[in-house]
């Protein structure tokens, strides 16, 4: 009895392995974009899992033919080199173009970052964002100028975040609000 169950389990496992191999073959047969899509998902995952990536940093990237182009800003120099190394060591990466900029190291900018973060994430309307492991509103401060990056649920949150950031004071100029609004779910007909 145990032998028959074991054989069936072994047969089921073999079928699953074959299906997985066939699925992988279909993916590679579809061409390079599928490989780039898979690589982009890995790059995104690794950036988000980097323990020092925070709301003070904003990294974007593009993947083409195994080449990863990193852009954006980080608040500390070691983050730039760490992220490049992490991405360079991913399987499938053939080249890394590192266009990440290190923001100026400034106590005044650090103070402004904290004030803006407190103004936004301390507001009850942003509690659902503040509770996330990596809150989606990124606060980029460069020489006293504030820019908001990331994704929020709706236009109200986008506008309120900019208003709250502006109320923090100390900014040299208007707040640049590059927050994106999530696409609403498709309506069922």
Can you give a write-up of this model?
It is a single chain. The chain is an alpha/beta fold and about 190 residues long. It has three domains: about 1-30; about 30-100, Histidine-containing Protein, Chain: A; about 105-180, Histidine-containing Protein, Chain: A (2-Layer Sandwich), CATH 3.30.1340. It is built from six helices and seven strands. It has helices at about 1-30, 30-50, 75-90, 105-120, 125-130, 155-165, and strands at about 60-65, 65-75, 95-100, 135-140, 145-150, 175, 180. Strands 4, 5, 6 and 7 form a four-stranded mixed β-sheet that branches. Helix 4 (about 105-120) packs across helix 6. The longest helix has 28 residues, at about 1-30. It is globular and about 45 Å long.
What value does the Rg take, in angstroms?
22 Å
Q: What percentage of residues falls in helices of 4 or more residues?
A: 40-55%
For the largest beta-sheet, the strand count, sense and barrel status come to: 4 strands, mixed
Count of helical regions:
6
CATH overall fold name of the largest domain: Histidine-containing Protein, Chain: A
What is the CATH level 1 assignment of the largest domain? Alpha Beta
Rounded mean pLDDT is: 84
What is the SS-derived class?
A: alpha/beta
- Strand segment count: 7
Indicate the overall shape. Answer: globular
Low-confidence stretches: 1-32
Which series of helices and strands comes N to C? Answer: HHEEHEHHEEHEE
Beta-strand content bin: 15-25%
**What is the domain total for the residues?**
3
CATH architecture of the largest domain: 2-Layer Sandwich
Name the assembly state.
single chain
Termini, distance in Å? Answer: 52 Å
